[in-house]
Amino acid sequence: MSKDTEILTAASQLEIAAASKIPCDPVRIFIGESSQEKAYAVQKLITKSRILQGAKPIGKKIGLTSVKVQQQLGVDQPDFGMLFDDMEIENGENLSISETMQPKVEAEIAFVLKKDLHSKNPSLAEIEEAIDYAVAAIEIVGSRIADWDIKITDTIADNASASHFVLGDVKKQLSEIDLIDCEMQLFQNNQLVSQGTGSACLGSPLIAVQWLAKKMVEMETPLKAGDVVLSGALGPMVNIFEGDKIKATVEGLGQVSLEFTN
Questions:
Q1: What pTM does this model have?
Q2: Are strands 57-63 and 228-233 parallel, antiparallel or unpaired?
Q3: Pairwise CA distance, residues 2 & 150, whole Å
Q4: What pLDDT digit, counting tens, does each position of 115-132 carry?
Q5: pLDDT band at 66, cuts 50/70/90?
C-alpha cells in the first residue's frame, strides 16, 4: 500500500466511524505507530472534508500535555487538533450524549488570541502579548477508535481525540490570574472527581501555547488573531454517561458547566 493510499484509507475509516457513530479499528494498522507526519496528513484530509461540509475552523486544541500520558503513548511532545464552530457548546447548556463517541471530560484554561503568531521561535513574552484573555473551559474528548485503543498516530489522525468544548463567561487578562498555581476542580453530579493546578499543563499553560505556536509555523498554518486555544488538561479525564451534570472551576476564572442529555 502506498503512502497516499495509507493516508486516504485511514481518513476514510475515521470519517465513516464519525458519521455512523460506530467506533473503528485503530488506524495505525495503515499508517504505523510512529509516523506523526502521516497522522497529521490524515487529520488534514479530514479537516478539508469538514470545511467543505460547512464547518468553520475557530482554533486549536492541545493534547498530551501530561508527561504521564506522553510516556504512556511513547512520545515526548504534545499534539494538536482542530476546533470547529459546531464543536462549541454554550456555558450551562446541554449536549446530547448521542453526539459524542466514548466521551470523557477534562477541565483546562482556554485562551483567545488578539495577535497573529508568525515567529518560528516565539518567547513566552511574545505568547503573552498575543493573548487577548483567558477563560475556564471544559473539553469533551471522544475517540472514533474502539475502546480508546490508541497510540500517538491514532489520536493525531483522529483530530487529537477532539469532540466538543465549553468556554466560561469570566474573561481575565493574564495579569489578573496565576496560570501556574491556580487550582482546578471538576465535579460530576456534584462530586469532586478531578483536580489539579495550572502547572499540570507542561509546567504552565503558556508553555503549551508556545509549543503550539512553533508547531503551527512549522506546518505553515500559524495561529491567528481570534483563534481559540484549548491549552490542555489540568487534571485527569473523567468518563461521562447520559444524565451527568458537569461543572468545573478554575481559580480566578470562575466556573463552566454542561449537562449530558439523551
A1: 0.96
A2: parallel
A3: 23
A4: 999 999 999 999 999 999
A5: confident
Position with higher pLDDT, 69 vs 38: 38
Residue 123 corresponds to which cell in the numbers above? Answer: 518567547
Written as one letter, the residue type at 209 is V
Cβ atoms of 107 and 255 within 8 Å: the answer is no
pLDDT, tens only, 5-43: 999 999 999 999 999 999 999 999 999 999 999 999 999
Cell numbers 477541565: residue: 107
Q: What is the end-to-end Cα distance of the chain in Å, rounded?
A: 41
Pairing of strands 162-167, 131-141: antiparallel
C-alpha cell at 84: 470547529
Looking at the DSSP bridge assignments, the partners of residue 106 are 139
3-state secondary structure of 218: helix
For strand 94-96 and strand 254-261, is the pairing parallel, antiparallel, or unpaired? Answer: parallel
Retrieve residue 90's grid coordinates: 454554550
Contact 80, 232 (CB under 8 A): no
Paired with 80 in beta bridges are: 62
E runs forming strands in 118-253: 131-141, 162-167, 183-188, 191-197, 228-233, 238-239, 245-250
CB-based contact 55:180 (threshold 8 Å): no
Q: Is 254 helix (H, G, I), strand (E, B) or coil?
A: strand
* Segments in the chain forming alpha helices (H): 3-20, 28-31, 36-52, 67-73, 124-130, 152-157, 205-218
CA-to-CA distance for 60 and 108, rounded, in angstroms?
13
> C-alpha grid cell for residue 136?
475556564
Q: Which residue has the cell 482556554?
A: 110
Tell me: the pLDDT tens digits for 140-157? 999 999 999 999 999 999
Cell numbers given for 230:
484549548
Q: Which amino acid is at 249?
A: T
